[in-house]
Amino acid sequence: LYNSQARDLEVLCPDFTEYGKKFVRSFNLHPDSYFQCALQLAYYRLHGRPALTYAAGMTRQFYHGRTEAFWPCTMEAVDWCKAMDDDTVTVEEKRDLMIRALKKHVELMDEAKNGNGCDRHLMGL
């Protein structure tokens, strides 16, 4: 089974050079949040459901700090993904939903970075 699936695998690594983090930051958006939401949208469009993804937030400000986990698949991200394929939703509403999803992602990153996440605590139990 493995060999047949491995032979059927094709990996493409295109370069995206249309814009980068400077462009995203020019709108006061966080590049990681932008990228994570873009991944959510791509997965949603491919599979018709949200991607249950995991992200690591760095806790290096703490002594021996490593990472804390957080989950980018938020209700805000799902609402935005659904709206992006809905022709009845205006461009302005889509923008507002995207910004709301990006802000939620930044909030989760900040909580993880500041040691306020729960994933590592629960894993320790």
Reported for the largest beta sheet, the result is:
2 strands, antiparallel
| Strand arrangement, major sheet | 1-2
What is the arithmetic mean of pLDDT?
87
Query: Hey, roughly how much beta strand do the residues contain?
Result: 5-15%
Q: What general form does the structure show?
A: globular
Unreliable spans: none
* Element pattern in H and E: HHHEEHHH
Brief descriptors of the model:
125 residues, 2 strands, two-stranded antiparallel ribbon, single chain, 6 helices, mainly alpha
Topology, please?
Blueprint: H1 2-7, H2 21-25, H3 31-47, E1 55-58, E2 67-70, H4 75-84, H5 91-113, H6 119-124
Antiparallel strand pairs: 1-2
Helix pairs in contact: 3-4, 3-5, 4-5
Explain this structure:
There is one protein chain. This protein has 125 residues and is mainly alpha-helical. Helix content is 54%, strand content 6%. A two-stranded antiparallel sheet has the order 1-2. Strand 1 and strand 2 form a beta hairpin. Helix 4 (75-84) packs antiparallel against helix 5. It is globular and about 45 Å long. It starts with a helix and ends with a helix.
Q: Care to give the gist of this entry?
A:
With 125 residues, this protein is mostly helical. It has 6 helices and 2 strands; from the N terminus they run αααββααα.
